[in-house]
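Case study B.
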Amino acid sequence: MSTEDPPELAVKAVGVSKTFLIPHETRNTLREHFLHPLQRTTYELNPALVDVSFSIERGEFFGIIGPNGGGKSTLLKILAGIYRPDSGFVRVSGALSPFIELGVGFNPELSARDNIRINGTLLGLSQRDLEARFHDIVAFAELERFVDQKLKNYSSGMHVRLAYSIAIQVPFDVLLLDEVLAVGDQSFQEKCFGTFDRMQGESKTVVLVSHDLGTVARYCDRALLLRNGAVHTIGTPQEVIDAYLEQEDALSPVRRD
Amino acid sequence: MSAVRPSALARPDTHRRIAYQVRVVRVLAGSAFKLKYADSALGYVWSLAKPLALFSILYVVFGLLIRFSTFENFALYLLLGIVLYTFFADATATTMTSVVERGSLIRKLAFPLLIIPVSATVTAAITFAVNVVAVVAFVAWNRIVPRADWLLLFPLLAEFYLFVLGISLILATLYVRFRDVGQIWELAVQLLFYITPVLYPLQLMPEWGQRIVLLNPLGQMIQDARAVVLYSSDVITIPTVWTSPVMRLVPFAVVVLTFFAGLILFKRNQPWFAERA
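Model:
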């Protein structure tokens, strides 16, 4: 995968590493510091990402798969700018969606109307954008009858529908999505795939973290398998899915719960 | 400040970035204010009722029964002190926990984190504004005629806000690491209530005490606000007890230093808030 033309790159990650220090006993209070001032807190090093490098071209749908604890979410957070890598760097060209999960800032005690305003504003929509798109958001989510209900009375499916409908109204060049379609019924999933098709047509760049190998196979141009924080395979979705399944099979006899 | 913030919100020109930050502060502060009184029958009335109840009790005890006051407008003197101090106590206490309470937001969205404490202080400022309406009503009731020098209240309130924000930023940053700060601050707010001349006239103190109390920015600002509104020589302010111009500047210097200390501390620590909050 030679990248002869750097301006065409949407995302470039070079040697990204991130290690979390997990204290064996968390000291969250001063008392603990005073009581055991000499006893140093011992840490366990949890290398969440080890020297991860890859690049994504503009207009690509890029899947990230891997087992739980493999580092997918950490990588996404570093791409979004939520975590700072210990070493290495990430470069993104174009407007990047700053959220890694849908429905950030949603508050169950407020109505859907208020939540659309909060979430939409956090994602960068102006007052005018929100007014103009309010109808579209509610219509896409099919929640016209429920806009003035508190979010705590929503089902998880309604929740996700609302969150997704707001997110797709935000103008971006690079979209980061973590496990979006886990909830939502068949017909809403089809609608989401419809927006994926549209994004492909508009040559948006999408980074999709998913456990749903079917979605990755169907939409992604390329994929990345993360294992123990390191890049295991980068390639076509089929290659990467095969590598993932093969590895799962190899592990399953000794796997514990 | 942070090295890599390649988000759509961090990138565009300064004007758009500031517009975004203002919108987010407004939305977060507004919804927090709304939520504070959600499902309560009287709603916003509570933000008015609480300081007024405190005022009534203190006025009955120290204004009518014990007779602290020698001067005529002790009620307004007391009310001004309570409204300002309540703002200080309310804003610092809620902002202290704001970063931790917004932890789930911080872990999912890349945005300028300073927005979180700022919007918490703005929520407290909304409550303060409601209380100011009560003060205005009281002033009108007492037939006090506004004077041009009341405009001095604006720079005074700006100083007050700067101090509140500085203290709040320090507390919010420390609270992420040490939850004890919550207990310590609760006690500190009670002690400061007595160190600051909120309910007693400064005349009751010996002069050395007045000198110390007025070096504390809270004492200086509350006394200045009273002096401006009441326009009475009974209100002792910093020029009354300190002749040296350097000493008169001490409370202002404390405010500016507190603000910058808070800002720098917060900015230095914010890259790790997503992991620790």
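DSSP finds 13 helices and no strands in chain B. The remaining cases will be described in the next quarterly update.
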